[in-house]
Amino acid sequence: MYSVNIDPWKCSGCLECVDVCGPGALTEQRQNSTVLASLQNEFEFLSKTHNTPVRFWENATRPGGDAKRLILDHDNYYAMTGGHGACRGCGEVTAIRMLMATNRAIHEKKRMDHIRELEGLTEGLGAKMDRVPHDDNDPGRLERMRQTRRTLETRLYRFESGPTGRGPAGAAIANATGCSSVYASTFPNNPYTDPWVNSLFQDAVPVAKGIFEGLSASAVEDFRALRSAKLDLEDHYNPEIHDGFFRTFDWEQFSEEELGLLPAVISMGGDGATYDIGFGALSRLLVTATPIKVVVLNTGAYSNTGGQTSTASFTAQDSDLTRFGVAHIGKHEDRKELGLIAAFHPKVLVIQTNAALQGHFMKNVMEFLTYNASPALLDTYTTCQSEHGIADDAGSRRAGLAVESRMSPVFVHDPRRGDTLAERFSLDGNPDIGKDWTMTTLEYLDDNGQARLKEIPFTPADFALHEGRFKKHFHAAGGSDDLVPVNKYIELRVEERHDKTPFVWSTDADRKLVRLAVSTAIVDLTEERRRNWRMLEYLSGLHVDRMQESHHQELEQWQQRYQQSNTDRENSIDSIARGMAELASTSGAPASSGTQALPLSEITTTLGGTALSEVGAGGGDSVLVEITEDDMATCTNCKTCYQDLSELFEKTKIMVDGAPREVGRVIPGVLERTEITSELIQRASRVADDCDAEIIRFHRPN
Ligand code: SF4
Ligand code: SF4
Ligand code: SF4
């Protein structure tokens, strides 16, 4: 049975689900007593049905698995219970629910594995104690094993059920004051099923550090017992070495595995708390090895204060509480890049992501929650409907567009991937890496009232046009203005910009195409975001890739020239041979074929062909993935292909039955220029399996 039900006790009516699921999947309905009763009946029935069978989500936490599926397990979904007190459609609550569901899935798997380990150790110790002989060098061995076994049995009880009946908590959360603390703490209710405490704006990180120190101190005895049990079972415990070691044993000597057995200690806060007021404390944490997970719910709007600019706010952004009238240009400073600051601490895992890219978000949240070598930072772009000036149902849509427009690109800095920045930085998840802008499609009506599509570069200015916080920067362009599209305008030198007006394309109330002039502040924003994107590209090694690409092109040109010169030479040998044969026939001498060009021709063709086909590993006859034009019309826009494999797929708009429709497609020509690695094959195969409309044809290369 497949069923989608709405919980009528918690639905706030934002309609984001209708937007995210796409046309025809869900529809809005005005609530009345009949609708409510029917929704309640359906939901109560659903609550009594079995959990989703394990086979549908068991690979979710495995490497390469489909992380999104973990939410199918009811227990994971209810890692947070109740509704929330946030504004309708708030992007923060989606991010938090997905974070806590992921943590619960990881924790539950670890808990079950650890229970099996503890059962094995306690049984092993019991059996061993019966046959341990007295040893003058270790007279206390039997008593130590008894004590160790008691400690492990207590731990086993706590992991199997403990006082709560649910085993130990999977997380402990220190929440800075802000929206996330307010909507989560409507006394006496709280949606978290894990311990949660609220502190001041600036204190979440220090409180988390205190919680971590307390939890790890109380785990010392258990981890000593775990290690001691293993040593005694292998007859490797040496009192002279180990008694002293365990006397001063503390968390800095815990193994990664042991650290993974502690609840995830999460510091949570908004941009005001983390970028600004609590920045000093965060900075201190980043140079330690304390494995605290720092979550930034980044609205860039200091939302809980009623809206101010923070250092995370964008250039040109207006805020409710820092407004100086229409003449003011909004924020004039550049944005602080907290993720980059953190990434320049070589051991810190940094993830800048966004819950609209569900696959990217959940896969990387899994890395974030299980990384224990050092602190980890998760900076997630979240919409704030009131401070961004967007509709209640627009959270996911706008967050996705923030990535596409380069306003808030996603990236990962993972210290485990290598020593160089290029190895550690990944921009996977962003569209059109290597280009300043991706393209988008504008729908409009032509003079005959026909629906038309226009392809335009999607810049931060195009993004800003649709949010209230940037509203005052756009005006109808005058008829006599010398208009230049903003993406071209920023390419001009300052002196060339004189008398020119930058603009963006839009549509008016009648859906006719219009041009809107943009302010200098929006020009600054566009330039600043492009600088940031280029910096990320540089850090991810794109300059190296570009150098290799240009070297590769040069090599290809030389090979073509070499082949051409051989062909020319071959032709001239052919004509000499022909001339000699003619001469011989006219003179009566025997014809010789010793200088025929055939062998030379074979050699040069083979040499050239081999080199070229090796270089173009993605080309040739193999088409790894394809979507036919007919099939494209049936795409349900589930977003899986272009979000999870943006190297090969992209979003586009096509006309279906006279109406524009957003669909996924294979990027034209991409397979000829992409190196087909085994990792790419694996990912492409998974994306094809997960295609909602089942229209991606996957061909495994031989
Ligand atoms: S997304 Fe909004 S409208 Fe849809 S079920 Fe959730 S709260 Fe209700
Ligand atoms: S003010 Fe903004 S961030 Fe705060 S709860 Fe409302 S929508 Fe969410
Ligand atoms: S092609 Fe398939 S995977 Fe891609 S958006 Fe459409 S339905 Fe989803």
Description of the molecule:
By secondary structure, the protein is an alpha/beta fold. It has four domains: 1-49, no CATH class; 101-313 and 337-426, Thiamin diphosphate (ThDP)-binding fold, Pyr/PP domains (Rossmann fold, 3-Layer(aba) Sandwich); 438-543, no CATH class; 625-698, 2-Layer Sandwich (Alpha-Beta Plaits), CATH 3.30.70. 43% of the residues lie in helices and 14% in strands. It contains 25 helices and 18 strands. The protein has an eight-stranded mixed sheet with strand order 2-1-3-4-6-5-7-8, sandwiched between helices. Strands 11-14-13-12 form a four-stranded mixed sheet. A two-stranded antiparallel ribbon has the order 9-10. β12 (482-485), α18 (486-489) and β13 form a beta-alpha-beta unit. α20 packs antiparallel against α21 (598-615). It starts with 15 loop residues before the first helix and ends with a strand. Residues 590-620 have low confidence and may be disordered. The structure holds iron/sulfur cluster (SF4) (3 copies). One iron/sulfur cluster binds at residues 6, 11-17.
Annotation keywords:
binds iron/sulfur cluster; Rossmann fold; alpha/beta; 4-stranded mixed β-sheet; 18 strands; 702 residues; 4 domains
